[in-house]
Design goal:
The chain has 304 residues and is α/β, with parallel strands linked by helices. It contains 9 helices and 11 strands. Helix 3 packs antiparallel against helix 4 and helix 7 packs antiparallel against helix 8. It comes from Rhodotorula taiwanensis.
Amino acid sequence: MADLAIGVNELDFAYAQLNGVEPRAVLEKVTLNLPKGSRCLLVGSNGAGKSTLLQILAGKRLTRSNAQVLGQNVFFQTPPGVTYLGTEWAANPVVRSDLEVSHFLDSIGGYRYKERRDRLLDILDVDLSWHMHEVSDGERRRVQIVSGLMAPWDVLLLDEVTVDLDVLVRSRLLDFLVQETRERNATILYATHIFDGLDSFPTHLCHLQLGTTIAPSPLEWPLNLEQAGAREAVPEEVRARMDDPNRTGSKLLEVALHWLVEDKQKRIEKEVREGGKQKRGARGQGETTNSEDFYKKYDYSAGR
């Protein structure tokens, strides 16, 4: 356990019961043990529980299940050196106010980490004279990343924060993150739906399906077929497409697409099993929707 940056075993989580409604399980039997120095991509469809897992590991949600970061219970004794960057930051009215970037970074201690701060300013191409209410969403996201990474971290939890970045800045940031893990033995858990250019980034993958990790968790990357469960996690037909000499594009994307197709099928099977029908998508032909009823009632085009 001493070599683990993240230790999660059989973790369960459900939101609290409100107004007599039974709590809904979000995570069940989640297992993810990551060694220090690793870079793990968290792969799963929307609603699989990726953000919830990252928030638990950041100490932002209470759970009494076994979840440790750097050997500590993350909610009751969150260790120093854990950094979480999520998309909700951009909705904070403070970071959309008339606030100069230099003043903002100084207010959160940027002057203490001048060398790292300046390096990140160059990598993310940030202008210290920007005013936060005038910049684009992508530029605001760059400021968030500078503010989050300028203090040295041991475990970095990323939730879709690169989605607003242009290709050049994203590539340079990923290079920086790889260097951090190699030089400082730091660890990254990164949830993303953008796999382009990521083939050489991760050391591990974690497949989260309907709130449950699919073994092996984590899966070594590049794919190690000697790892127990690897052949089942990435079946032969997927590996054949990955190894096709005429293929173009990302091998990692090939694996992610296979998993996401599988996730959708499992979700549909669960919906039918629990409610008798598939919930998402267009309704059956001939079935009138509530919106149709509404517009027919107030449709005066026929001269009524």
